[in-house]
Amino acid sequence: MDWFYKFPHMNDDALRSLKKAIDEGFRAFTRSYGDTIEFLFSPLQHFLIAADRFMTQTPWPIIILLIAAIAWAATRNLRIVGGCLVTLLLIGYFDMWDDTMRTIAMIFVCTVLSIAIGIPIGILMSRSNRVQRVINPILDVMQTMPSFVYLIPVVMLLGIGKVPGLIAVVIYAIPPMIRLTDLGIRLVDRDVLEAADAFGASGKQKLFKVQLPLALPTIMAGINQTIMMALAMVVIASMIGVQGLGQPVLKAIANQYFTLGMFNGLAIVGIAIIFDRVSQAYGKRLQKHREIVHG
C-alpha cells in the first residue's frame, strides 16, 4: 500500500541524471557563448553607467529642480510637486541621497528598456490572437516565477554586477507593460476604427494616430505597474551587485540593523509614491484629454 501514501515519481537515479545533464548543458552553453552575450549587453551597461553618473554627480539642487519640473509637467498639481520635494529633501537629510539616486537611475533604465521591448510586443499581441495565445503563458511564468529564480541563469551567464541585476529586474517587471499595451489597443472602440478605415487610413496610420493615442492611459497604467514591480525587485537585485537602496536593506537583514533597514525601506516607499502619483496623475490627464477630444 506504499503507492497509496507516497506519490509515484521518477526513479531517483534517473531524476538525478536528468538534472545533472541540464546543469551541464547550461554550463557548456555559458562557457561557449557567455562572452558573446556579455558583449551584446555592453551598450546597456554604458547606458546604465551614464544614467548612474548623471544622477550621482549632478548637484543635488539641480536634480531636485529637474524632478519637480518633470512632476509639474506631468501632473499640473502643486500638491504632488510639493510632496515630491518634501520626500527628496527628507531622503537627503537622512543621508540616503547617493543610494537613492542610484536606485532612481536603475529604475529609469529598467523603465526605458521595458517600454522599448514591451510596447512592440504588446502591439504584436493586439494584432494577432495567435501571438497572444503563445505569449500569454510566457508572461504567466514570468509573473509567477519566484524572483530569486531569475538570478540563477542571469548570474551564470553574466556574473555579478549591474547588468545582470538590470536584466533580472526587467524580466520581473515587464509583463504588465506588455499585457496593458495589448489590452489598451484591444479596448479601442470599433466605431472609431471603422471611421478611420472610412477615411482611408492605412494600418500604420490607424495604429499610430488612432489606436496608440486612445490606448495611452492604459499604457501609462502599464508603465506605472512596471515601475512598482521594478522597485519591489531592488532589494533582491542587490544580492548580485546592484547598488542603491537595496544594499543597505540587505545589510540590515544580515546584521539585524533595524533602523538602517527601516530608513532605507521608507526611502524606497517614498520613491515608489513619487513615481506612482506622478504617473497616475499623468494618466488621468490623458484620460480627460481623450474625453474632451472624443466626447
Name the descriptors:
86% helix, globular, 295 residues, mainly alpha
Structural write-up:
Helices cover 86% and strands 0% of the residues. The protein contains 15 helices and no strands. The protein has helices at 2-5, 12-40, 42-57, 60-75, 78-93, 97-127, 129-144, 147-158, 162-173, 175-186, 190-198, 203-232, 234-237, 246-255, 258-294.
What's the helix and strand layout?
Blueprint: H1 2-5, H2 12-40, H3 42-57, H4 60-75, H5 78-93, H6 97-127, H7 129-144, H8 147-158, H9 162-173, H10 175-186, H11 190-198, H12 203-232, H13 234-237, H14 246-255, H15 258-294
Rg (CA only): 23 Å
N-end to C-end Cα span: 71 Å
Estimate the helix proportion, in percent.
over 70%
- Sheet-strand content, in percent, reads under 5%
Q: Mind summarizing the main beta sheet?
A: none
Structural class: mainly alpha
Question: Oligomeric status of the shown chains?
Answer: single chain
Q: Unreliable segments (pLDDT under 50, ≥5 consecutive)?
A: none
- Mean pLDDT over all positions: 86
Continuous helix count: 15
H/E element sequence: HHHHHHHHHHHHHHH
Q: Characterize the overall form.
A: globular
Total strands: 0
Please provide a brief summary of the model.
The chain is built from 15 helices and no strands.
